[in-house]
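Agenda item 2: uridine-5'-diphosphate complex prediction
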Amino acid sequence: MAMRLSSRKRVLVSGGAGFIGSHLCERLLKDGHDVLCVDNFFSSTRDNIQGLLAHGQFELLRHDITFPLYVEVDEIYNLACPASPVHYQSDPVQTTKTNVHGAINLLGLAKRVKAKILQASTSEIYGDPRVHPQREEYWGRVNPVGARSCYDEGKRCAETLFMDYRRQHALGIKIARIFNTYGPRMHPNDGRVVSNFIVQALRGAPITIFGSGRQTRSFCYVSDLIEALIRLMGSDDSFTGPVNLGNPHECTVIELAELVLSLTGSRSPIAFAPLPSDDPTRRRPDIALAKAQLDWQPEVPLREGLLRTIEYFDRLISGPARPALQLAATATVPHVRAR
Ligand code: NAD
Ligand code: UDP
Ligand code: UDP
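Presented output:
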């Protein structure tokens, strides 16, 4: 896309090879910007960005953000951090370092080059919430010493750092509190519930439900989230957030399992497994602030987003040589690029 040089920006996406990051890089390139993707491949591979490597405005830098980084950019999206509990708990000290040292380095960079910087925060800020649905004013209920704390407290400290760089150095900041997001390019072994259930259903393996399965989550399709992140970065300088970004449609883990089974036509049995510690009981965003400030709300219903994601994993698992799965209502599913 041709773009006037004045509106073409140099955008750094840390964690750009990850699930959300790769979609964001793609969108920024489509919008005509220069993209610097910074990633240490802790929870991803080059596969997600393979298709972007030949793009003249795309640059990949293998780098761990816990170390300083000196580059010249106009905007920074800080997405670097493993998001799946399995990954972020596999090296919890590194998770805290990424959230805290990583944030300090990117904030220091933003300060030096006067760049606007957006933090990918999380609904985990609210912990196991007593207020439902969650509004931004709620301070949360987080265990500071548990298995999830490296992620939850790391992300909370990062929010503090962002607000203090704003107050102390007048930095242009944005904080997005992202709720469970899913879609193509999640790693098949990522360990999160949507990818697990779909891969298990497609392989005919047992669907692993942790605990009773009555805990709830609200799942947002990735294209809706990307639109929200772009709008947030482009919002008025006076609006910093934190702002909830997610789909308010809430469902139980059992309902999700049943939907995946029905959409794939799989006969996988259900297998109950112990609930991981500090697993939040209910989670649903109140998105009134995002609606008012960003004129944004999600558009892709769960069923449709799942169909697109199932089609992606089906191609990934089966390979192109095997016939594609007959999905319910595939007519509504657009083409998803096979890797
Ligand atoms: P992901 O694990 O697919 O992507 C994270 C990326 O960050 C990976 O490519 C990983 O290699 C990279 N990374 C990790 N540590 C790094 C480091 N020290 N230096 C450089 N790169 C590093 O996860 P995702 O789902 O794409 O999540 C992206 C961001 O959004 C994360 O910050 C996550 O906390 C946040 N978020 C995601 C969700 C969700 O449901 N997907 C929900 C809330 C918040
Ligand atoms: N930093 C960086 N890139 C830059 C500028 C700073 O990685 O372009 C890092 C540097 O390691 C520093 C941190 O960001 O320790 C915080 O920078 P700041 O200027 O806020 O504080 P300093 O520690 O330099 O006083
Ligand atoms: N979960 C599950 N089976 C799985 C993976 C996850 O029942 O194979 C549950 C998990 O215990 C949690 C919910 O699904 O209650 C969402 O888990 P996920 O790891 O995707 O994200 P979280 O919201 O917990 O960070």
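Discussion summary: The first helix runs from residue 19 to 30.
Owner for follow-up: CH.
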